[in-house]
Structure formats: C-alpha cells, structure tokens
Design a protein that fits this description.
Number of helices: 1
Number of strands: 16
Distance between the termini: 44 Å
Shape: flat
Largest sheet: 6 strands, antiparallel
Strand order of the largest sheet: 1-6-2-3-4-5
Strand content: over 45%
Helix content: under 10%
Structural class: mainly beta
Radius of gyration: 21 Å
Order of helices and strands: EEEEEEEEEHEEEEEEE
Length: 188
C-alpha cells in the first residue's frame, strides 16, 4: 500500500482509515482565510456501507489501498444471490442480491462484470456502462409528433422504464446507459 497526503485524496480512491477501508465519494478542497488548507472528504465504508465526513490536512498521510479487480461472467440467478464465474480459473462465486443493489436489473446472461476484491473478499461490482435491451411496451407513434425534444415512456424486457424518442417502437432493441437508465441510441 502507498501513503498519500490528505489533500491528494480524489473521488474513487480507496483508503484505509480508522481500521477499515473506505472509498472517497466526494472531495472538496477548502482554503480558509485563516489556518491551513484541508480536504473535506465524504467516505463510504466498503465493508459495512456506512458513511463518514472527514477533514484531511495536507500534513496528514493515509494509506491508499489497491484492490484486486477480476473479470467475472454472470451465469444465473441463484435465489438470494447471483452466480458468477472467473474468466481465467473458471471458479464460481455467489454474490448476494442486496450487495449488487439497483444494478441487478441490468444483469444479462453471459455478461462480463468487474468484481473488486480486498483480501479475497468481494467488496464492489461494476457492470458495463451500456446494455442492449428490447422494448416490451411503448405508446404508438403519433403522426406529426416530430418535436426534437419530445420523448415517450417505454418499458424494457427487464421491467425498467426509459424515456425514448417518438420514432422508437415496441420490439426494437435500444442501448441504455446503466448509470442513470437513459436512452442512448437504437441498437445495431
């Protein structure tokens, strides 16, 4: 592990602090008129999910933690968990559904995800930025409705609702951003 100064902590960094490991969610460098500068950091505990706001002065040092990242292929829904297979060793692991959270709706058969490990324990999962979904239900196209910024609701195969342009119809495949469930384009 490498030591970094408190003012060098950036969002996404994983640090060891107060005997646990934390991911920096937000950072704000503050330079008050009186006294030394500090970095106000919002931290999320990767082991239990709790949050903490902490001030780090530039003179303080923290341990930056390196996480092991591995590609896993999604296999199937195993009740309360999902099964994944290591792309290199073909070992299978199960990860609880509540650990995956809201991203669970985007899991598709044979999808490759990145799982982060700390001391052999999974602590994070990253899905691809975009997925291709089929529209199950949407309103029919209304003639003359060609306004550039008009969108209509559509329900996809996995149950999520996406706002799509009027020219997109039922049964079409679209590309959806997984981070905020927004329509990007029609799938090829």
């Amino acid at each position: 592990m490498a030591k970094i100064n408190g003012n060098e902590i950036k969002p996404g960094n994983v640090i060891e602090h107060q005997g646990s490991i934390w991911r920096a969610v937000k950072t704000n460098s503050v330079k008050p008129g009186k006294g030394g500068a500090f970095n106000q950091v919002e931290l999320r505990n990767l082991l239990n999910g709790s949050k903490l706001n902490e001030r780090f002065r530039s003179s303080e040092t923290v341990e930056k933690v390196r996480l092991e990242q591995k590609d896993y292929q999604y296999l199937y829904d195993a009740g309360e968990a999902h099964a994944f297979m290591d792309q290199e060793t073909f070992e299978q692991i199960e990860i609880q559904k509540d650990f995956i959270g809201e991203q669970e709706v985007f899991l598709q058969s044979e999808m490759v995800v990145v799982i982060e490990f700390y001391e052999e324990k999974p602590i994070g999962i990253s899905l691809p930025d975009q997925v291709i979904l089929t529209i199950e239900e949407t309103e029919p196209v209304v003639k003359g409705q060609t306004a550039a910024n008009s969108f209509k609701p559509a329900t996809c195969e996995n149950g999520i609702r996406v706002m799509v342009p009027p020219f997109v119809g039922q049964g079409e495949r679209i590309v959806v951003q997984t981070s905020d469930t927004t329509y990007l384009k029609r799938a090829d």
